Amino acid sequence: MNTHLLIPSVISEPGVYDLPSDLYHSDPCDTPSLSAGMINELLKAPAKCMLNSKRLNPNWEEPEKQEKFSIGSVAHIIFLEPHLFEEKVCVVRAYTKDGKPSDTWATQDAKDQAAAARRLGQTPILAKDMETVLAARAAFQANSFIRTAFDGGTFEQSMFWRHPRYGFWCRARPDFIKDGWRHLNDYKATANADPEEFGRHAFNMGYHRRAAWYLEGAEEITGARPDHYWFVNQETKAPYLPAVVELDEESINIGREENEKAAEIFSKCLASGEWYGYRDPQTRDRDTAFRRRLPNWAFMRNLEGV
Predict the structure, then answer these.
(1) Which of 63, 117, 126, 179 has the most crowded CB, counting CB atoms within 10 A?
(2) pLDDT at residue 56 in the model
(3) How far is residue 149 from each of residues 207, 230, 231, 250, measured CA to CA in Å?
(4) Would you state the pLDDT for residue 77?
């Protein structure tokens, strides 16, 4: 299987490609493909998956960008692709109408600079927020395990493979692939990187599905599964503590089972053209009513007379 292929006009062969991020997210396969992010929506309501897909939704519109996300985007670039910083990032140093420095997006100068940066395909960030990113980078690099985990490999490569059961295209874009495919890394900026809290957060975010999806893709492409899938989490407030966490095999297996359910749904939706809303997992072929129970704490409160 080919790896690290040149940029094609359309993906028609499984492998690993060096693609720009926007091209990857546009879904460049010759037929629609499935990604880990789409799986989370498919399992909730396929209609949401279709609506948010540039490839599947003929009326898709670019989501409005919000400045609060720029810090995480810039951190991702400066940590993982520092050689592209000048090309991808614009540090905004804005001034008010009377010539005073401003550290907010409220001024027209800041808005104009941000708009100009986006037209060039850059991510704008305020100078004061850039100081935060640099402090976080120092904390990131101070962790000896993280330095080793990101040494000797490739960043931001795009993986494409055929689903082994249903035959449709699948895709993934690891933040880092270790030489020899020994492990994959996934960098996440988060409010809380405490490893003791990661299990609940991973379940809520569908990270067990994500890890299983990427590991399966790597195995389909190379013939061997990587030894590890590491989530490299870092807190967004000082002291910007990072932590590397790996889900255990039992969690990965749950993710793999849920991915198979999503793959079946995706295959059927592609074939039928019906991207339905909320349905009971036991009766996905039709709309039904739901019966649900109050949370356990509500019954406890009732027993206590609250």
Answers:
(1) 126
(2) 94
(3) 19, 9, 11, 23
(4) 82
